[in-house]
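Q: Hi! New to this. If I give you a protein sequence and the SMILES for adenosine-5'-diphosphate, can you show me the bound structure?
A: Yes, paste them in.
Q: Okay, here:
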Amino acid sequence: MSNNKKSFLILVAGGSASGKSTVVKNILKKAGAHDVLIITHDDYYNREDDLTMEQRIKINYDHPDSLDNNLLNFHLSELLKGNSIEKPIYDFVSYNRSDKTESVNPKPIIIVEGILVLTDKRIRELADLKIFVESDDDVRFIRRLQRDINERQRTVESVIDQYLNTVKPMHYKYVKPTKRYADIIIPNDTNHSVAVDVIAGKIKDIIRGNNNEWFIWKVL
Ligand SMILES: Nc1ncnc2c1ncn2[C@@H]1O[C@H](COP(=O)(O)OP(=O)(O)O)[C@@H](O)[C@H]1O
Ligand SMILES: O=c1ccn([C@@H]2O[C@H](COP(=O)(O)O)[C@@H](O)[C@H]2O)c(=O)[nH]1
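A: Thanks. Here is the predicted structure of the protein with adenosine-5'-diphosphate bound:
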């Protein structure tokens, strides 16, 4: 792949269970999987092999230091240069990075979603578009409770304890303040289809080269 190809990088932040992955999946459905690569910041949680399961459960996963942003910054820089990466894969059940990685090739549009993806200045500066997905706290808590029990093998008690001890305080300290960096804020208490249509439309313009500012993936 030649270096004159440049991807358009979109960062999508927002509180836990605000609907980031759902919004991003719907953008992908409208804009087409062929041209859009999705990366979740969760895959970049630090590797914690030296800790026991009991110790890993107690980590504050809503603090920026729990994520390996050096690696994410390096990987995004490589993808933007047109190079492939070996992306880590996180395992929520073992609270640790898995031993497997995934080979990922760049695509014209790269979307990275995660609660803390707008906290690191280096990563913000790589981005062409920054989005914040917003839902009320009670809506997010209910969604998280259901999702963590169904998909992440958590108990009601563990979800409640984690929410009160770390998720909620860190949301106000680190996640919500990054809303000020967003170019677009998507309200997601109910329906986000209009916002998704607008963003998918912009993505299609970029892919087709109909955008004044962006002329990407042109093979000379
Ligand atoms: N607009 C919405 N209406 C109803 N449920 C939603 C909506 N957006 C997301 N959800 C649900 O909320 C849960 C959390 O959404 P998800 O996209 O995983 O959030 P995040 O990626 O921000 O943690 C999922 O079960 C998802 O289906
Ligand atoms: O091992 C872990 C790692 C992270 N978490 C929680 O995940 C959310 C972020 O994911 P969302 O999909 O955006 O909700 C974060 O709030 C961490 O608390 C975890 O529970 N266990």
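A: DSSP finds seven helices and seven strands in the chain. Let me know if you'd like me to explain how to read the tokens.
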